[in-house]
Amino acid sequence: MADPVVEAVARAVRNAPASGAEPGLMHWRRAMVWAAVAAVLIAAPQVFNQGFAVSMLSQMGIAIIFALSYNMLLGQTGMLSFGHAVYFGLGAFFAAHALNAIGAGSLHWPVSLLPLVGAAAGLAFGLVFGYVTTKHSGTPFAMISLGIAEMVAACSLMFPSFFGGEGGISTDRVVGDKVMGVDFGPGVQVYYLIAAWCFVCMILMFALTQTPLGRMANAVRDNPERVKFVGYNPTRIRFLMLALAGMFAGIAGALEVINFELITAERLGTAASGTVLLMAFIGGVGHFYGPIIGAILITFLQSALSNYTQAWLLYFGLFFLVMILFAPGGIASLVTLHKPAVQTRLLGRLALPYAGAAVAGAVLLAGLIMAVEMFYHYETKREQVGAVMSLFGQQFDTTATGPWLMAVALLVVGGVLLRLAARPIGAAWTEIAAAVNRGQGN
Amino acid sequence: MEFFLVTLLNSLSYGLLLFMLSSGLTLIFSMMGVLNFAHASFYMLGAYFAYQTSVYLGFWPALVVAPALVAVLGALTERYGLRTVHKYGHVAELLFTFGLAYIIEELVHLIWGRAPVPYRIPEILDFSAFSVFSTKYPAYRVFMMLVSVGMLGGLFLLLTRTRIGLIIQASLTHPDTVEALGHNVPRVFMGVFAGGAALAGLAGVIGGNAFVTEPGMAVSVGTIVFVVVVFGGMGSLAGAFVASLIIGAVQTFSVAFDVSLLTLFAKLGFTPDPQSAWMELWKVTIAQAAPVLPYVLMVAMLIVRPKGLMGTREG
Amino acid sequence: MPKPSNAISSLGRLAVMAALAIAVPASAQTIKVAYLEGLSGPFANVGEVGLRHLQFFADRINEKGGVLGQKLEVVPFDTKTSPQEAQLVFKQLVDQGIRYMMQGNGSAVALALSEAMGKHNARNPDKTVLYMNYGAVDPALTNDKCNFYHFRFDADVDMKMQAMTNFMATQKSMKKVYLINQDYSFGQSVAKAARAMLNAKRPDIQIVGDDLHPLGKVKDFAPYVAKIQAAGADAVVTGNWGNDVALLIKAAKDAGLKVDFYIYYAGGLGTPPVIGEAGVGHLKQVTVFHSNIGGSRTVEMVEAYRKRFPDSRDDFYWTSIMVAVDMLTRSMEQAKSTDPTKVALAMEKMKSDSLSGETYMRDDNHQLVQPIFVSTFSKANGKDVKFDVERTGFGFKTDARIESKDTVLPTTCKFQRPKG
Question: Considering the domain boundaries, does residue A36 fall inside one?
Answer without folding.
Answer: yes
